[in-house]
Specification:
single chain, elongated, mainly alpha, about 80% helix
Length: about 70
């Protein structure tokens, strides 16, 4: 799947993860997407990629805050 489509799907996904394992999986998925986008950003240096990474980082931090990591 295209990483941009995957990132937008994750960003727009309903983020009410009920169980701890769902939160852990969501946090790992967000991290994987952000790192993939970062590799693309290193080559392209486009601002929209950076903005997408920042938005995903905010979502990831909210999930991890609920995990008390």
């Amino acid at each position: 799947m295209d990483i941009f489509v995957r990132a937008h799907d994750f960003e727009n996904k309903k983020t009410t993860f009920k169980t701890r394992s769902e939160r852990i999986m969501a946090s790992r998925e967000a991290k994987e997407i952000i790192l993939s986008l970062n590799e693309i950003y290193k080559v392209d240096q486009k601002q929209d990629i950076m903005d997408l990474m920042k938005r995903l980082t905010v979502v990831k931090r909210k999930i991890e805050k609920r995990l008390n990591l």
